[in-house]
Amino acid sequence: MRESSDRRESMGLRIVVVGIAGVGKSTVVSKSVEAIKGSSVAVFGTEMFEAAKKLKWVKHRDEMRKLPVENQKRLQRIAAQKISRSRGGVVFVDTHLFIRTPEGFWPGLPYSVIEALKPTHLVLIEADPEEILSRRKNDTTRYRDILTTEEVQTELTLARTFLSAASLVSGAPISFIHNREGKADEAARVILNMVANAAK
Ligand code: ATP
Ligand code: AMP
Ligand code: MG
After folding, report:
1. Number of domains forming the structure of the chain
2. Residue 186 has what pLDDT?
3. 7 CA distance to ligand 1 middle (Å)
4. Would the pTM of this model clear 0.85, i.e. be above it?
5. Residue nearest to atom 6 of ligand 2 (CA)
6. Average pLDDT over the chain, rounded to whole?
7. Residue 19 — left, alpha, or beta (φ > 0 → left; ψ -120 to 50 → alpha)?
8. What is the residue range of 149's domain?
9. What is the 99 CA–ligand 2 centroid distance (Å)?
10. Phi, psi (5° rounding) for residue 27?
11. 187 Cβ inside 6 Å of ligand 2
12. What is the CATH number for 52?
């Protein structure tokens, strides 16, 4: 085990965790970070939000996706550059494959961002559409889009398409993790297994 964790330290895993809004990415990632010694997380949206606040563009993180896409691109560039400098054994990046903007679905991981983040693994968190909707509704800390079940299903399908594209461009393997209701620990355990295999 000692040997595995030494290897993990030196190999520098960059695990990019994606999934649609409210599916449970941040919950699963924080459980994974708690369980993996020396691991850390970079929340892409937080880096964008810090930059957006400095520019006085928004007051809340959920306002960013309503900005003109050109402005969002500027924030995305800043966040990607900042995160590209993070070093460590296992770095998780908590982010989105695409953003539902008033101008259309816009990629969260275009080539320029993939190039900066250099993911070694891509993990898509999924859940049942009804559960995602109830998580969105019940989380009063955020202003998430409340859609129909069909619209959430469309987002889930779209996520798999964007994930394939990100894998082709980055060369990173992809995993699908189902975040079952009340079972975020189980989802985190799948990630721990993946990390253990990478460090063998
Ligand atoms: P966003 O993309 O908007 O940041 P997210 O994917 O990071 O969303 P979280 O913030 O982790 O989603 O979770 C959304 C809500 O769902 C939170 O209130 C969280 O506590 C809850 N949640 C996460 N996973 C589960 C689960 N397995 N069972 C029940 N509730 C969950
Ligand atoms: P989150 O807390 O993960 O929902 O992130 C907050 C917001 O940051 C999201 O709603 C998006 O507006 C933005 N965001 C996060 N990741 C990306 C990304 N890769 N590209 C563009 N915008 C992003
Ligand atoms: Mg989150």
Report:
1. 1
2. 98
3. 31
4. yes
5. 45
6. 94
7. left
8. 2-198
9. 7
10. -65, -50
11. no
12. 3.40.50.300
Which among 17, 18, 27, 126 is the best mutation to test ligand 1's pocket, defined by most ligand atoms within 8 Å of the CB? Answer: 27
Any ligand 2 atom below 6 A from CB of 33 = no
* pLDDT tens-digit map of 70-105: 999 999 999 999 999 988 799 999 999 999 999 999
Q: Which residue has the tokens 């494959």?
A: 97
Nearest ligand to the CA of 43 is: 2
Question: At residue 96, what is the residue type?
Answer: H
pLDDT given at position 4: 54
Cβ-proximal residues to 16 (8 Å cutoff; 6+ apart), any chain: 92, 93, 95, 109, 117, 119, 121, 122, 123, 166, 172
Written as one letter, the residue type at 29 is V
Under the banding of pLDDT at 50, 70 and 90, the label for residue 117 is very high
Q: Report whether 150 contacts 180 (CB < 8 A).
A: no
Closest-CA residue, ligand 2 atom 12, reads 65
Ligand 2 contacts CB of residue 19 (under 6 A): no
